[in-house]
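DM from R.C. (forwarded with permission)

"hey, sorry to bug you on a friday — could you get me a structure for this? deadline for the figure draft is monday and I only need the backbone to look sensible"
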Amino acid sequence: MFITPDTGGLFLVKIKSVIKGSPAFVCGIAEGDILVSVNGHNINDVLDYMYYAADVNVEIGIMRSGTEMKFIAEKDEYDDLGLEFDTFLMDSKRRCSNKCVFCFIDQMPPNMRETLYFKDDDARLSFLQGNYVTLTNLTDEDIDRIIKMKLNINVSVHTTNPELRVKMMGNRFAGEKLKYIRRLAENGISLNCQVVCCPGLNDGDELRRTLRDLGDLMPNISSMAVVPVGVTKYRENLFPLKTFDKKGAGETIDIIEEYQAEFLEKYDSRVVFPSDEFFLTAERDLPEIAYYEDFPQFENGVGMLRSLIDEFTDALETAEYSGGERHITIATGYCPYTVIKQLCESVEKKFSSIKIDVVPIRNDFFGDTITVTGLITASDLISQLKGRNNGSELIISSAMLMQNSDIFLDDRTVSDVEEELQIKIKITQNDGYDLVDAVLGV
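My reply, with the result:
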């Protein structure tokens, strides 16, 4: 990617490769060509590229050896042209300009790999990959483009109180950028919203205000998730934050369900949902599956455990096991431990030859206030499981690993843990059917 002086500051990007047999390949585009335009439009990034290349006949302007050329690619509507670039976005990710008091990255241990400290706040990744964005680094022109392209996005709102948003996000523009939420919603853009709830800051009446304000923008607020703040032991010189206790978690659920009832009556949807962690902290039963509707906030930990329970129960009902004695261990966080333990007890009740040890792993790496499974590291697995009889296999969740890899957050690998514990590891997805198969050794 580069900008050359003789193009009037236009954004130009080098084509890294062309997929053989693709529309771009067939019409003559070659590796090393410089992309200038698509259907007569200048291209600023991947969103422009995808938007203007959606047609059946696409005019591609390129520069080859200093000469500008144009090609016509024929394809089905919305099919990819077949061009590949050095980066997915065609340029670099946009870095977050906020200093949020609850930012998890600011609470990371020192001396980890550099990529773990990068904070992105990129609206393009919101549309393409589901990332949440704060809107603080967007301009009116960016909002115009989102509206023009009809890009539904995910927004980290946290609070609709402008002054409190400035305080919580450490950005003097955070309050005024709330106007973009209204503008997007009023122009038909569908928004999934997120509130990271911090005791004493944006809970209680402030949470009520946020839910009320967002509810006024219906029907273009597709869903809202309220998740509890995560607090690690690495908070020296950071804003003093507390975690939710049983009472606070219960009060937060009550507020959310108060608005759920109102939204359900008005819009035939609950719209806002508390994450599973609130129910576990409040020591309340998880709601039934219908509560979560079509699971719009699943990736925010809303309904994951209910889905797991129901899938596991269905799978176990028809499962068969003809093997011999089987002893395995499942490692999990303290938060879902009780749920996982109960599921495994149902397996042992049905198949008496299977013994399952469910071991809650204390998070020494980040601090014991972190109780979710997804932040368990290899070092904590090794230190707490070494020396005990873990049976023939150790089952862990894929949530512990970096996406599409076998690497834990502390840079150690699955093989490292297997070698240290002298045991085979089975990795499962957040899927009850997969977990039953793993438990039965399928």
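R.C.: lifesaver. Residues 402 and 442 are 25 Å apart (CA to CA).
me: no worries. The longest strand covers residues 57-64.
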